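I am still getting used to backbone structure tokens and would like to learn alongside you. Would you supply a protein for us yourself, any chain you care to pick? Start from the sequence, derive the backbone structure tokens from it, and show both lines together. Go ahead whenever you are ready, and we will take it from there.
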Amino acid sequence: MPNSRWHLFDDPRSVAQAAAWRVVIAADRAIRHHGHFSMVLAGGSTPEATYRLLAEADTDWSKWRIYFGDERCLPVGAAILTETVLRLLRRGGKRQEA
């Protein structure tokens, strides 16, 4: 991998901040050049901190096309489903009681 670069961070929050910043920059560039930005969300808990930061981003959400990836065979509403995490973020981080 001759063109790869490694980035070291002090803690998980720093990783999430850097990832969110890079996504917003890519989104802004894509919207400016193509009129929209497409993103596939990964499942599991690893990207959740990044998604929380993205939810607060000052961006034109109407130009974002968000797709779900890595969906597992779990019941609707399972805590680790990408869809569940996205719904949680849209509610400001508050889980709904069943």
Q: What stands out?
A: The helical segments are 12-34, 48-55, 82-90.
